[in-house]
Amino acid sequence: MMNSQELFSAEKYLVIGQDVQRVDALDKALGKPIYTADQPPAGTLYARVVKSNVSHGLIKQIKYDHAKSVEGFVDLITAADVPGINEIGYYVDDQPAICGREVKFKGEVLGLVVAKTEKAAEEARALVNAEIEELPAVFDIFDAFENKVLARIDKTTNTLKTVKVRLGDVEKGFKSAKVIVEGTYKTGYQDHVYLESDAALAIPMGDEITVITANQNPHHVQQKVARVLGIPMSKVKIITPIYGGSFGGKNDMGPILAAQVSIAAWKVGVPVLLEYTMEDAFTSHGKRDPSIIKFKTGAAENGLLTAVEAEIIFDSGGYANRSPYTIVRGALQAMGPYKVPNVKINGYAVYTNKVFEGGFRGFGNPQTQFATERQMDKLANKLNMDPVELRLANLLRKGDMTGTGQLLENEVGVGEALSKAAEKSGWYSKPHRWKLEDGKIGGLGVAVAWHGFGTSYLSREYADALVTISRDGSVNVYSGIVEMGQGSSTALAQIASETLGVPMEYIKVQVGSSEYPFTGATAGSRGASICGAAVYVASKKLKERIVKFVSDKYSINPTKIDIKDKKIITHNGLTFDWEKVIQESYSAGVEMSAKGYYVPPQGTYDFETGRGAPFLDYAYLALVVEVEVDTNTGITRVTNAWPALCAGKVINPSLVNGQLYGSIAMGLGYALMEELKIENGEIKNPNLTDYLIPTMSDMPKIEDPILVEDIYPYGAYGSKGIAEATVIPVAPAIANAISEATSMDVDEIPITQEKLYFALRR
Amino acid sequence: MPSFEYKQFHDIAQTLKFLDEHAEGTKIIAGGTDLMVQWKAGKVNPKYVVDISEINELNYIEEKAGYVEIGGATKIESLRRSNIIKYYFDSLYESLRNFATWQVRNMATLGGNLCNASPAADLAPPLMVLNAIGTLKSFKNERTVDLNSFFVGPGKTVLNGNELLTSVRIPVTDRISYQKFIKLGNRGSHILSVVNIATNIILRDNTINKAAIALGAVAPTPIRARKTEEFLTNKKPSEGLIEGASELAVKEANPISDIRASKEYRTSMIKVLTKRALVGMIKN
Hints:
The complex is a heterodimer.
Chain A: H1 25-29, E1 45-51, E2 57-63, H2 65-68, E3 73-77, E4 102-103, E5 109-115, H3 118-125, E6 129-134, H4 141-145, E7 159-167, H5 170-175, E8 179-187, E9 199-205, E10 208-213, H6 218-229, E11 236-239, H7 249-268, E12 272-275, H8 278-284, E13 291-299, E14 305-317, H9 323-332, E15 343-351, H10 365-383, H11 387-394, H12 414-425, E16 433-435, E17 440-452, E18 466-469, E19 475-479, H13 488-500, E20 507-511, H14 527-554, E21 561-564, E22 567-570, E23 575-577, H15 578-587, E24 593-595, E25 604-606, E26 611-613, E27 618-630, E28 635-646, H16 653-672, E29 678-679, E30 682-683, E31 701-702, E32 706-707, H17 730-742, H18 753-759
Helix pairs in contact in A: 6-7, 9-10, 10-17, 13-14, 16-17
Chain B: E1 5-8, H1 12-21, E2 26-29, H2 35-40, E3 48-51, E4 61-64, E5 67-71, H3 76-81, H4 83-88, H5 90-97, H6 102-107, H7 110-115, H8 124-129, E6 133-137, E7 142-146, E8 151-153, E9 156-157, E10 164-171, E11 177-184, E12 195-204, E13 207-216, E14 223-224, H9 226-232, H10 239-252, H11 263-278, H12 280-283
Parallel strand pairs in B: 1-3, 2-3
Antiparallel strand pairs in B: 4-5, 5-10, 6-7, 6-10, 8-9, 11-12, 12-13, 13-14
Helix pairs in contact in B: 9-10, 10-11
């Protein structure tokens, strides 16, 4: 195992911490990247999904006589065509790649029409007629929780996962409390709305298959495709092209589309391109789980928390998919980044007959910490304390114990982050509520958040990378990490560049193929930090070999040799050219490629006792926002945002800003306008005309973030993953600001303008 | 998606000849920002689609004696950039400025926005309060129609299948007129109107000499609030007057509940928007 100190030992960085331009910036600006659906090979057939129009039922038969008559129709692929195991479930085996028996939601994929043109596939799919015997369906989360109707006839209960957190004795904690606040919170669906809709291209070749698709873990996709086809993983190759955004969504949809398109291509024997239209994406791909959360918080007179009790229910839809993980993450962090001596949290994920949930930036935490942070504001109000002061009194510090009983051994920057964000926003010097003209009111709101990054307690945490130096001195970095727009390829290049001592333009990062080292999912905000450590380890090995070669050749003590800016420099003033030394190393038989397998310590959680240290470390956010509420129309404008974040050592400030800006947009949509309208299990707004995401004109002025670099000893150069933490505080901060402005509790999101308008008049 | 036959003409005469022969089952396409969406959703199923986007004689903005004339296939973005429009017609300019997205404005046309006859069409209320006149040409005839009587119902106008809206004339208004356009949607921009309003008020000696108010998305067609206009005429602007006008405007509308807003919310917003569109008169 790596000595953790080595990962962040440099005193001065050359590339790390710099605003290095993204390695893909120019190509993307010039429109050069080729996306999955852009250039299918000649002879490719086109597939479209056939979907259920019933929420719950049993498939009797699928008729497609009319579809056959469409010119260009080739085949209808159904569950009967699956050569291997028809199973794509993530946590449990409960989800078929193509549904063949029990339909669990409207929009579920029952088959694929394959045709010679997209148009024919589109035309033919409308003519496929699935006869489904309807069964009673359940849509309401409480009805499902109480098992009033079973969402699935193959289960005896709708509850698919329970999780608990137990610390101390909550009864005692509430008894010793001076004030107690209780609330019930509801959060809605959220769709990822990635720019590039779901698509996958499968190319069969003899007894092998190659699948090109956006995903977040090519090796996982490889495993799923091999399983549905009943062939060894070695016969399946997954290529991740440059792609247009994921936010967790394509971690689910990558394997699902790859499995579906592979089944089709395997049967017809030629390449098949499967694309979901925007409407298909809305009706049939995973979403952020809606939630209902009952929360009780107690505090002493001085504001110190005495107890937290919560009951959390996540609506998983027709399949478990990621819910068993999202509910766990959400529950384990529901007490917030606070010192709470007594905790009792129960979390449940339930099946309903609606579209299934999926992985989504924040992974359970945006739901639960919305409730946490609303509770903190209510508590402050009841205690007559300032909301920032109340939080500061309770925030975790190094050496404290979290609500799951985890001792925090590393630096914890959240207190400093909140103080600085509050200071910068003028929190202490200006009113938190002010009147504006024409019925408008201004308000300030604050929220903090934490997010355990990495996979940690869930599965063994490790990372792998291969670094190769070519004879001309250029460097290739290979890893199973996926670049989905977040910028990990740039960060990995920076890590290789810094470690090897060669400029960025020498580094080429190649990621996303199942042929590159298996490094787990690019999820849990782990790409740059944890997988970056593997790149560091490999690069370090190579650097040491080069240094040793020079040391041996010129009889110089290796500790007196360094590599900087493609020069091998000795303490006594000798410099050697990088290219020359690499050529000489090759001639001397020095191995110029190295693997960097990296295994950090493992998180643990005891599901029996409800205690543990589930994540190695946490990223923290503090956010102050200013809103203007137009009481005459219900319209809320978020006008300013003052963020502060604790991401350990920041590898690339621009990339962090990118995550932050995107998160503020996404969190703003989640809080104010993104509303999936479902009636009897049917999504009424499966389009971007009526499922509204924020535009530029909805964005606040975002101040430069305050960076509190609380070093994480097991991440590359001390970095933490920040991509998800950034979204968590946005909705509660906005809700707190609206509540402050209007003196009305905002406990349900999205709080659309119409909802707010009528709520203000109740 | 059913097929259609695509025709493109480069002059009005050819287009009208084709329309005369194929009045049934033909749809005109200019920018396609409405038609293509409806076609993909299966809401329209034309046999022929006639493209008029390359007809130069339909693409112009010209100032003439007493009026400004605009070709039917003039792009929204061209109108938004026109100094003539900006100079004369505050409410129309404001509507153009808030019209959809830049990409849509580059494709969509004046004629398309009107002939699609959405109750929420953003150009309709300002053109109605400006008393704009449309010219409808067919192979054999030509007629003009006041845009205030152009709309018949959702997606329906007085235009016959063999006719083309070739131009719109807007009488040049007195620069002392007080014009407003306000749009309320469910987000800051790039959005369909939940309610929109346009006003055109002539004030003389602090008295309302003429009042025109049009509302969108609150009835089967964009409407003029005639009783409200009458109520305002010959009165001096005051807060009380505006309050009364806003209450009257509510009574003139007949909004529905749909996926974008409830009838109740729309009703409330008519009042708010009417007040906001008129309150500036007091300061003037």
